Recover the amino acids of this structure.
């Protein structure tokens, strides 16, 4: 019998946060529990595609500290208040897909969906060999992090991005194969080494900067490759976000600009 959301998160309740950090403009990551890798704990939280607000106070009297619309500099600075704080509870409301993280010192993190029809992954909890994925439609899934039981948000068919004809899909796959050969790297169907993955995308980014790769193709290359990286790695996060660029360009151009900028910086 599969665990419930509450059963899955319970072992992390009462632990203190460490390595609280901002990533990809407004994404957040923090660790709890003992260190199992250099930058990761046994409970790795990742706040991804949602609106969020960090506040402090009780009842109706609280102070807004920072939120997902704040500047990148402000987010990086203000999120540090959570460092060393104990996680007291997590409340998830499936009716409106909102989540409240309660921390000591009357701090809390509130999350809610963006408000569009696209089903997106709002936050994750990675532990051991399982991951909890909480979505904007009020559902959640507990699975192996390398499983692809359902499409990530950028693979859902949207009215403003028609389904690509087969010949276009074939062209994009062939484009990746061509770059793999030119970059002289080795990838298999399951996973790519961090070194080869970064080498490949450094080559792709150079091609993009020189005008030989379109922004839609850049997004497609991210989509084809992110699943081959360790889900806890920074490269995975950057490419997962990069896979949204094709949609963002048409709907959230500022977000698309940030995503491209983050890719250029990370894989330069």
């Amino acid at each position: 019998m599969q665990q419930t959301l509450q059963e899955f998160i319970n072992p992390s309740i009462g632990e203190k946060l460490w390595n609280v950090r901002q990533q990809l403009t407004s994404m957040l990551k923090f660790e709890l529990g003992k260190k199992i890798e250099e930058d990761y704990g046994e409970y790795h939280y990742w706040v991804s595609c949602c609106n969020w607000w960090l506040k402090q106070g009780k009842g109706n009297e609280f102070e807004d500290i920072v939120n997902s619309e704040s500047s990148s500099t402000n987010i990086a600075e203000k999120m540090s208040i959570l460092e060393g704080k104990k996680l007291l509870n997590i409340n998830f409301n499936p009716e409106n897909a909102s989540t409240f993280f309660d921390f000591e010192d009357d701090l809390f993190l509130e999350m809610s969906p963006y408000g569009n029809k696209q089903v997106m992954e709002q936050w994750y909890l990675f532990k051991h060999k399982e991951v909890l994925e909480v979505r904007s439609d009020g559902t959640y899934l507990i699975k192996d992090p390398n499983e692809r039981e359902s499409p990530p948000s950028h693979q859902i068919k949207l009215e403003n991005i028609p389904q690509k004809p087969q010949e276009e899909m074939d062209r994009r796959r062939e484009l990746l194969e061509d770059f793999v050969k030119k970059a002289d790297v080795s990838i298999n169907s399951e996973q790519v080494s961090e070194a080869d993955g970064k080498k490949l995308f450094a080559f792709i980014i150079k091609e993009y900067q020189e005008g030989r790769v379109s922004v839609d193709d850049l997004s497609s290359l991210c989509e084809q490759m992110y699943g081959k990286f360790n889900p806890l790695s920074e490269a995975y996060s950057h490419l997962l976000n990069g896979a949204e660029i094709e949609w963002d360009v048409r709907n959230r151009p500022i977000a698309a600009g940030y995503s491209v900028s983050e890719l250029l910086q990370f894989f330069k």
About this structure: Helices lie at 5-9, 72-78, 166-183, 194-209, 215-225, 234-242, 245-251, 253-266. The first helix runs from residue 5 to 9. Confidence is low (pLDDT under 50) at residues 148-162. The radius of gyration is 19 Å.
